[in-house]
Amino acid sequence: MVTGARKKPIQKGSTGSRARLAEATSPSPSGSVAPGKAKVVWDDTNLRTTYANVCKMQGTRDEIALSFGSNQSWQMGQEQVCVLLTDRIVLNPHSAKRLLVMLEQGMRDYETRFGRLEV
Fold this sequence. Notes:
Elements: E1 6-11, E2 21-26, E3 54-59, E4 64-71, E5 83-91, H1 93-114
Antiparallel strand pairs: 1-2, 3-4, 4-5
């Protein structure tokens, strides 16, 4: 909880069962919030879920771009494979590194529960 902060309710978007009240914290009138003490509120009002079985990465010094899509060719031995790219996420290198750390931990947890994956 943020020291000296007041709470105010925020009405999330009306997306059926996802509509709900959330509590957010705002700085005290003096505007002071201690570093590392702010409460993070995850707002999933506009969250979209898509399926991807293909990921392509491109990078420059300033950003890493991940393009996601799905392989549309399911038969073996084809000369050409069609991949429909539908979503792209562009990250700065620091965010990309944090994503890498989270994915590594997630895969360790997965393999502990379900067995090692070979790629």
